[in-house]
Sequence to fold (238 residues):
Amino acid sequence: MLTNLFFFLLLETIQPSYSAITSVLPETTMVAAVAQANSLTLFHESAPEKTTESLGPVLEARAVYAIDLETSTPLFVKNIFDRRQTASIAKLVTAMVILDNHALNEKVTIGRNPLQQDGTRMWLHEGEIITVENLMTGLLIASANDAAMALAEYDSGNEKAFAVKMNEKAIELGLRNTHFSNAKGFDEKDNYSTAYDIMLFSRAALNYPFIKKTVSIKNTEVTSLNGNTKHKLESTNE
Fold:
């Protein structure tokens, strides 16, 4: 999901762009990013020089924002203020909300709703008792939608109430064009962000040691509290 040095944010357009002046993004970069609609832009003022022997980035994405995580220097930008569906990267905010409010050793009893989730799952069982840590591991490595639902229900009773906390977190992080309607990142009209805002909350997520450590794991296995149920997890990051 995230690399150690920089990351690309690739999402689908659903609404027009907006502009904002920020302290992180140089003014020349921001103006050019908003002005250009379709062409890729590499800013020589703030980006490493491309040698003549190397090819430029070949990207199909409609929006891209790459930064150097050590300096916050923008390396590559494209349509960074356009609203997009967030997809599973929204789970980073789910993870932050859980870590803000719960200890990793807390015990969660799995209900029926997590089992009814579509998409990627870690295959939880109704009545299974599992720690917050193991659910979070499934959330961040396997992008497990059943884990997201289980954590949302454990924290707030239902997913809608949990989304309220996600939006409160978005405000806390200074996200100006982001709204969450579910904990999983499923495409919905009211579930959107921008490449720029996603850069902000992705960078914030890396300040949580558990998240930073876990997203680097490719494969692992977690179990229920009694050890009888095992869940093999594999990263969805190609």
